[in-house]
Fold this protein.
Amino acid sequence: MKKKIVYISLSIDILHHGHINLINHAKKFGSITAGLLTDKAIASNKRLPLLNYDQRKKILQSIDGIDKVVEQKEWDYSPNLLKIKPDYMVHGDDWKQGRDKDLRKKTLITLKKIAAKIIEIPHTKNISSSNMKSIMYEQGLIPSNRQNLLKRLIDANDVCRILETHSPLSAIIAEKVFYKNKYGRKIEFDGFWSSSLTDSTLRGKPDIEVLDLNQRLSNINDIFDVTTKPLIIDIDTGGKTEHFEINIKTIDRMGISAVIMEDKKGLKKNSLFGTEVKQEQENTKEFSKKIHAGKKSSSSNLMIIARIESLILNKPIADALRRADSYIDSGADGIMIHSKDKDPKKVFAFAQKFKKNYPKIPLVAVPSSFNIVKEKQLIDHGFNIVIYANHMLRASYPAMRKTALDILKYGRSHEIDRSLLSIKEILELIPGTK
Ligand code: SPV
Ligand code: MG
């Protein structure tokens, strides 16, 4: 008689005895086909595993009792069940409660359709991969692990959501905050943006490349001390090519995931001034050479994203597209198209043409001015990364100013208590304060 097929589904980010209990139980019923969740499937509901799909597959294939490993591309089991038509599915009974309750209902209907049986085994107590994963993320995050997360997130997500963080405290917020949407899905930030504008402003200096790179990197080091998400650094023009070649090695070694370098020359002014101030775009050839030099001096793990300023300087879309060709030829790993228009029309026109030629090259948007656009529209136009470039600092300044003003106004702080983090909250905010 043909051996029965038993379907189980796993992500095995961290292999533990609970998985072995499940596998040992499942193999009693027949030959196990294991659906291994892809990064994309996992990212749709929780944090990316530390090991990528191929690494996890290797582990799973070596476990005694696993006869076949197949991709499970969705959180939902049904597509694979309909395809594989197993005789049994084995699952821990923990999905009867909590987040996966509805998923269980749907799965049972699918199983009925294909006349398969569900076997629910008691969940192994005192073990949770998610808790273990948090501990590993916090304690075991070496620079190269953090660095590679960005590329994996670009592959796994429709769009990567990056938030400006100018301090460790703002980064802690960006690391932890999440919103649960109506489908129960957690929406969170994928990483951090180290902005030249907000790093400079925080120190009371103009955004003209006056901050020393070491000052910027020291701030990032402090951010990395207390967080685990990947970071993209705004390195302005990158400075002189000879300096850039040296600096990029330090940036790479720190585990920063990407640099974004803008194609300007001379004294850099913030792009959001547009043509109000004197600012000049670098010649395409020279800038391409700088990209090439940077690629040669850094590892393949660090992404160099070229930022095109043509639209900022009122040049035609064709100019931006020509530059994109040259920058990519020189090794750029991604393109950021910047604009200070309120209307996203030109940015979208660029994206459409660009993505036709380079469907696989990551495209970055910084919708500070055209913030009418929703992430969904950016996704539809092929953007892979959206950077909210200055919002945390812009939020904190008015709050601080009002607080200062109100203390003057009332001659005490009592009236403003409600708008502040309470003393109790600030004492509890950072573990170990007590
Ligand atoms: C920054 O955040 O410093 C940037 C983006 O470079 S912008 O301010 O829009 O130029
Ligand atoms: Mg900047």
In short: Residues 195-197, 234, 236 surround magnesium ion (ligand 2) (CB under 6 Å). Residues 5-130 form a domain with the Rossmann fold fold (CATH 3.40.50.620). The mean pLDDT is 94. The CA atoms of residues 211 and 359 lie 36 Å apart.
